[in-house]
Fold:
Amino acid sequence: MTFTVNGLTGYPTVSLQPGNTGANVTALQQWLVKNGFLTQAQMNTGTGIYGPATTQAVASLQVQLGVNAGANAGYYGPQTITAIQSELIFLTTPSHPDLVINSLSLTSSSLQAGAGDTVNFSIGNVGNVASASSTATVNLYNGSGTLLQQLGTVPIGGISANGGSSGAKSLNVTVPGNLAPGSYKIGVTVAPV
Structure:
């Protein structure tokens, strides 16, 4: 079994059981979400409440850890805590793509309102699963990071896992003519198609 570095922290070290409520239950639920035993949607139905979804998630964790909980399946107690600590957290997190902007530049370093320029960028995948086709959106933000306008989109094909790249992408954009003088930012966001 393989836990991620993220799974090394955040698990409660106190016993919990169905019916408990409070911060320790929330911490347990967050840890279960982080490690793929509980979905965020399941947690949102009873944040801080040790209900059926949390009980089932703990029972699944116990099976993964090889804890023979018997009649106490789903009870988060000393056996489960000790098993987590002895594994020193080797749970497998759900596999997923993780797209990041590798580079971003403009052809010009200074733009005038109403002027055009080319935005050049590349997108990488640092996740452990290839990504599906996506769309990259080039955005204009004010100096404090508030989105002002979408300047255009570029289709991105699937990107291979573990360091794959989209290759160089570019988009010709026109800066809105009604912008006041000041500092602005160009950014790129990526969304699945």
